[in-house]
Amino acid sequence: VKIVGSNFKMIITLFDTYKDFLPFLGLATIFLAGLVFFIKRKSTDATAVTEAVQPKELVASSEKVVSKTLDFKERLKLGLAKSRLGVWGKVKALVTGAAIDQETKEQLEAILFQADIPTTMVEKILHDVGRRGENTSLIDDIKLIMREVFEKSSLSQGQNEQHLEKSWNTELRETTKMSTQVIMIVGVNGVGKTTTVGKMAAALSRSGMKVVVAAADTFRAAAKEQLMVWCERAGADLVTGHENNNDPAAVCYQALTKAIELKADYCLLDTAGRLHNNDQLMEELKKIKRVISKLMPGAPHEVLLVLDAMTGQNALRQAAQFQQALGGLTGVVLTKCDGSAKAGCALAIVEQLKVPIRFIGVGETLEDLNIFKAEEFVDALFED
Ligand SMILES: Nc1nc2c(ncn2[C@@H]2O[C@H](COP(=O)(O)OP(=O)(O)O)[C@@H](O)[C@H]2O)c(=O)[nH]1
Ligand SMILES: [Mg+2]
Q1: Which of 32, 280, 320, 352 sits 20 to 30 Å CA-CA off 11?
Q2: Which of 175, 185, 239, 240 is nearest to 208 (CA)?
């Protein structure tokens, strides 16, 4: 009894001394419990998502990516796996070995609408499929129709793949000593403009081209640092604004001046995607175009609109806005095709905007951006 009594007394004294800390102790316990719960939930979420979006094929191929031995064709196939396993796989399964009767056509129509393919395109496919007779398979028919859509859009701009080859063919550039090509990259926030500029700078530098990059997104503080990392890796020159001069057009002007001075092959302009309002953004972009063309007539040689494939129909609305405000878009860079089962929106983009897709992005590494080739893209959507 005595021992129990003295222990009890000791506890009371201890409690008296530390009772002021009790609320803190309580709060700390609640905080820790919350933290453990959050971390546990986050990690199970992550595994659930990975399992859901990574069918066996993807997991197996992504291991190959680590070995870095994939060429772009394989990366494209890997990136488009979701689209291939989704809509385009269904198309293939439906028409393989089937006769093109009314029932098949109705089913085909339903699948194509799911893929955000515009009505006029769906009608065209339904009208033309099976027309080349029994000697060609229906799947080859559909592939050909899709390729024609892409190729027609390039031709309507007077820029076919040959032109593309010319302005981006680095070997040709070296022998013909073309003047600096100015490439302006535009698009809304988060679509992948800065990443695209980084990847382009790296790819061009690697093939021996001299590249100057303008960090003209002076609105976002982190944009400059992000580009610095890319350019350092690529060995490209980066021009940024000064503390007291944050005018994006001035940054572009300085970058092009430097590019001309250095006889650079390319001058890439990374612009802002968000300003206080849309009109302000468009005015800023127009100003950049004006300033650049005064310094170098004919520049910018390309105005590329970056669109995120994941946004589907919304990408189209954005494109229409930029096209209307800026005019003269020379092409589209379609990014994040790896994250989307709707890479089919590429068809809608070229159909409705009459602007060719110039580059395609299928991941976040340097090697995941390349020139868009209609045949390669369509094959990747259907091939196993
Ligand atoms: N999966 C995937 N992510 C991409 C791709 N391109 C860009 N991203 C990511 O998209 C995010 C936004 O990119 P950023 O270049 O900062 O967009 P910006 O605001 O248009 O400059 C970054 O996390 C990029 O890594 C792509 O092709 N695939
Ligand atoms: Mg950016």
Answers
A1: 32
A2: 175
